[in-house]
Backbone:
């Protein structure tokens, strides 16, 4: 297998390009996806390649263009709608929750909405309170939506096509700190499944469950703990709705300890659901309560030292695993 | 004179159809009100009584392949579109024979085969869907229009603005049919809009827009044909302000305290059905026996629809979670 | 103490009236709060009593009038903003999350936002998918907001004033099925605290934790279980953010079993956070995993039998308590 | 002639102040760009270079007691309002001596004492705050205006429409100052608005609105005074379309691919600072030594501000969660 050094950003671009090439019902729509080249340069060059009909710059009208994507899907297209960041998706939430997620059911199965909504999520770049939300957990609460979070370059490239083949709306969260991440990518383009979580690092002593932007620090923490002889199994959820309980439980019933890492604010974040599910289904297998490592419950501050203190750090994860494994293994 | 014979014949025939359709909606909804009081129909029920000329005139001008988006006050649009009365009533009864298999109710009538995209209970929520449907037609080279019905209250929503701008900017083939019945629940036009000339407001987006007497089905029909010609022709969107009035309360919950009875009576003088009947009589296009025949037909249809609805099966409870996601075949 | 038979609706009205009387910075703003008399008749008569400046009907512009409430609070007023239902609050979410909740922190403590946002929540009236949301858990996720849910007539009357005295934004959720609830109310108007959960029924065998619209069925279930000799302690959270962990833990450490009842969709609902917190803080006191009784993960259907199947029922609660207490007491 | 003496003197003095203020903003931001490259300032940084005449002319026309709402491109407005340069720069350094105690950064400058309500990073997010502040003034009988600055891109947001309608409907004392710099990130005016005459669009809401040469500080100042007179007088809101241009990229991240250099150069010919200098020279109101004196003063102020920022303390990490809720005294 031949590989090419690729960034997460480029992997997304490859995925969009191949989707546009494979299916002429596919088009990309969003703010500054065209002439600007994409706020995070994901779609750079695509306007020149595919033209303004299929690489559509929109006005600052989140509700209208997201809803137009839903309507276009009903009309036979396969829209990829880019919302620049999750922060602005609040302005389109009514369309997503009350139309995209409900039309199939409200119509008694007549109207499915085949579209993909991509958005950047997360903090870590000193963008302060209004530009640092992690609301994946909110979206994962909504029946009718499928939520995915590519945490690796392979998934950045592979998930889009699978999502576009899904008959229902899929929301794809791209963490803002991942775009520049680089690594070797298999040249043989292949779609990846978006149903299953994957074990990114096997281990026997504790299960570390995370997704998206916090996979990297979770692996760092696992590395450090390995030095102390604690073998942590790291699971990347990949799909946030539905959640792949089987993979989680298979691991937890082996390790008897679980730690969830989630950049969302602790209270009511996705980590709460994961903790509750594990306890419900593996209570008598647990040797310690499920630990959670989340963001402090504060609007994300600008100052670097405050932002770092607000976000999960590798050391927080290490401490949580130590707490979970304290009473011997 | 005999020369006019054929012309008169077609006119008479056409007017009889219009009358039959308006009466059909009227009788249907009068029955719905009864059935609501009899607790056969539940939830919210918004009647269209007084506004029938709008649906009959505008929907009638659409072609079968053209899409239609409506609101929670959509019985008239559904019936005018040809959604069978039986399936509409069964839906309000919550039966699986309903046009949304009992999941939608009065506010969420759908019929994909007739490109009737519903039934939306969020004020303004249907507008983005309509421009998206228009975008899909445009991108797939179909020279056809999408009609979007909404009330004057929706004009205050941000979504209205975003959609008008986007439709005009992209010259999308959409007919915006604003049903100005002068009230949004209890809020009179002048209490919700600084600019009460809604056609003028719409034209500020750079699209043809004009007011129409919404109590005159023939005026509505003519205006719709004119506007649709522009839209289908690639002339971009058009806006019609259809001036009408609801004779009944906003919904079955509404005690109707906010307008005085005299105003209502004043408007009833312009009842679209009486208006057309009067005109047809003058034209010698309608005899008492014609009218009786129509009424007889309608009460038969209504009786049959009620019987079917009563007899209709309920969706099995085991199927509760069907249609949250598409069924993979 | 003298009492008067009062409905939840009237109790809210008494609370609003007394706030308007006590503090001239207070005003009520929202859709149809004035001439219509309030969508659920809560504000009926207040327009006549306090005039259109202080009982302000707004256009259908949720984002603008909620944001205007925030601005008015910054300007020295004490707004009570009514969003007709939580379903429409999605259109104002950006203002609530990015302004109301963050201004104090982003400004380094300079700008607090003393306002109360009231909204109806929940299902149970056959209003179907777009009008039946229970998103309390979403709001409870946001730092900077305080969330309360009056479940009794006393709280409906007492919580508003306490909330208005709070220097920060408070969101008050009124379940749509409670307005007609009637009972004796102490005439001596007194504010209630909004920090603490309360035990609505003491018990030793299991702790039933709920809030708002599901308190009634939780008490019914407790009643039924008492018949079987199972004494359930029923806790009404009252404040959803912050959560009163102390009261929950005090109970659970006595009963060793907990069941959370939440009308929200199970995955990612507030029930998940409560389950996770109890497990984190009382793991070794638990004799069984925390059980959750929530809504089925499906857009709320219209048909009565389907809606009932989708929502938590007393029998579901009874079964959950039986599961939790199965292995002897 | 001697008769003109005093008049000339005041004019000269006033113009020198205007020049000094525009230069002050220019020099400050040129330094900010340097400091960003030197990684002293992080996050997003949006420069105002080229648009200084708007802030200096319009903010200068406000009274000290009048409120001001701005965007993420607000350095100019903050400085013109009198927020000390030291505290603005310290904020960008993330110091606790910053005007938002380091929590806001460049996009979230606040100064309650000067009624500077910030710094909003959600496009259009500040408009509802402004009309709310205006509402508070009106309800408390203060005959004063609130100024709201926003870009032409924000005009496409639904919130713009809702706020314009509400402000006009309620005749709120708000000055809408639209900074039309022809681009929203990479999206040119004509690509985001069907109606590119923004003053015309605004006047469709029934408020006085007119375009102003935003590169001419004296024209801006005169227009602002005229508009504010109407607003303070109870004439309702006014809208100014301030035609300007940003000489630099949208933010430090922006490669500026979407406009050609010639266009930028074309606009630089109208540099508001050069323009005023030229005019003052012709009027004999400015000598080289005057200019040198101003520049010297400014570089001293800037040097002092940098020194103070460098030396400013960081907010203690223990205070991370302060200001999420108000501190009870
Ligand atoms: C976003 C939103 N806000 C509020 C409501 C509640 N509501 C339902 S219908 C209605 C009035 C709408 O009036 P209009 O648009 O004129 O339509 P009409 O009912 O007169 O046909 C309101 C306020 C809603 N359904 N959606
Ligand atoms: C609701 C929202 N959508 C998108 C963005 C990203 N964004 C930040 S500034 C900007 C352009 C705004 O242009 P304009 O309103 O003209 O102001 P300017 O930057 O030109 O001063 C965009 C798209 C945002 N901050 N908020
Ligand atoms: Mg209306
Ligand atoms: Mg601009």
Residues:
């Amino acid at each position: 297998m031949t590989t090419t050094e690729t960034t997460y950003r480029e992997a997304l671009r490859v995925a969009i390009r191949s989707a546009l090439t494979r299916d002429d019902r596919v088009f990309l729509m969003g703010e500054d996806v065209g002439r600007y080249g994409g706020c995070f340069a994901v779609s750079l060059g695509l306007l020149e390649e595919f033209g303004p009909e299929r690489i559509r710059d929109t006005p600052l009208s989140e509700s209208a263009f997201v809803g137009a994507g839903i309507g276009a899907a009903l009309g036979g297209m396969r829209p990829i709608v880019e919302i620049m960041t999750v922060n602005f998706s609040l302005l389109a939430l009514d369309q997503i929750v009350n139309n995209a997620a409900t039309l199939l059911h409200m119509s008694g199965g007549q109207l499915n909405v085949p579209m993909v909504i991509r958005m950047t999520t997360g903090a870590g770049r000193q963008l302060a309170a209004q530009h640092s939300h992690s609301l994946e957990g909110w979206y994962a609460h909504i029946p009718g939506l499928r939520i995915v979070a590519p945490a690796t370059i392979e998934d950045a490239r592979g998930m889009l096509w699978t999502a576009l083949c899904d008959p229902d709306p899929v929301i794809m969260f791209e963490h803002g700190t991942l775009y520049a991440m680089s690594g070797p990518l298999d040249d043989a383009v292949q779609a990846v499944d978006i149903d299953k979580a994957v074990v990114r690092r096997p281990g026997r002593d504790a299960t570390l469950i995370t997704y998206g932007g916090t996979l990297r620090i979770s692996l760092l923490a696992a590395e450090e703990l390995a030095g102390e002889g604690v073998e942590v199994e790291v699971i990347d959820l990949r799909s946030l709705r539905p959640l792949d309980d089987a993979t989680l439980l298979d691991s937890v019933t082996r390790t008897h300890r679980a730690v969830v890492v989630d950049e969302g604010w602790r209270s009511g974040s996705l980590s709460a659901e994961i903790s509750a599910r594990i306890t419900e289904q593996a209570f008598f297998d647990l040797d310690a309560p499920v630990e959670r490592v989340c963001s402090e419950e504060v609007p994300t501050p600008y100052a670097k030292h405050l932002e770092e203190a607000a976000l999960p750090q590798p050391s927080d994860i290490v401490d949580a695993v130590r707490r979970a494994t304290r009473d011997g293994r | 004179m005999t020369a006019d014979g054929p012309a008169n014949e077609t006119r008479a025939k056409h007017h009889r159809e219009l009358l039959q359709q308006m009466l059909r909606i009227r009788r249907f909804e009068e029955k719905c009100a009864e059935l609501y009081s009899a607790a056969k129909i539940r939830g919210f029920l918004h009647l269209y009584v007084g506004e029938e000329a709008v649906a009959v005139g505008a929907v009638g001008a659409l072609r079968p392949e053209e899409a239609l988006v409506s609101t929670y006050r959509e019985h008239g649009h559904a019936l005018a579109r040809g959604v069978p009365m039986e399936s509409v009533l069964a839906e309000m009864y919550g039966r699986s024979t309903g046009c949304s298999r009992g999941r939608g109710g009065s506010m969420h009538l759908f019929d994909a085969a007739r490109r009737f995209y519903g039934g939306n209970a969020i004020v303004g929520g249907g507008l983005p869907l309509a421009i998206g449907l228009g975008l899909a037609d445009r991108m797939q080279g179909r020279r056809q229009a999408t009609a979007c019905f909404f009330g004057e209250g929706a004009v205050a929503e941000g979504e209205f603005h975003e959609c008008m701008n986007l439709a005009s900017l992209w010259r999308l083939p959409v007919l915006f049919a604003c049903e100005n019945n002068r009230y949004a629940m209890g809020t009179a036009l002048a209490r919700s809009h600084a600019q009460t000339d809604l056609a003028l407001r719409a034209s500020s987006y750079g699209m043809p827009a004009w007011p129409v007497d919404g109590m005159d089905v023939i005026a509505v029909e003519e205006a719709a044909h004119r506007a649709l010609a522009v839209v289908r022709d690639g002339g971009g969107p058009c806006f019609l302000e259809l001036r009408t009035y609801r004779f009944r309360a906003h919904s079955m919950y509404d005690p109707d305290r906010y307008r005085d009875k005299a105003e209502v009576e004043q408007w009833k003088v312009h009842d679209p059905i009486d208006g057309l009947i009067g005109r047809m009589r003058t034209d010698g296009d309608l005899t008492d026996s014609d009218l009786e025949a129509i009424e007889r037909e309608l009460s038969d249809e209504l009786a049959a629809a009620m019987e079917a609805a009563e007899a209709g099966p309920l969706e099995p409870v085991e199927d509760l979670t069907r249609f949250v996601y598409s069924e993979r075949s």
Remarks:
- Residues 9 and 300 of chain B are 26 Å apart (CA to CA).
- Residues B 151-153, 181, 183-184 surround magnesium ion (ligand 3) (CB under 6 Å).
- The two ends of chain B are 64 Å apart (CA to CA).
- The mean pLDDT of chain B is 97.
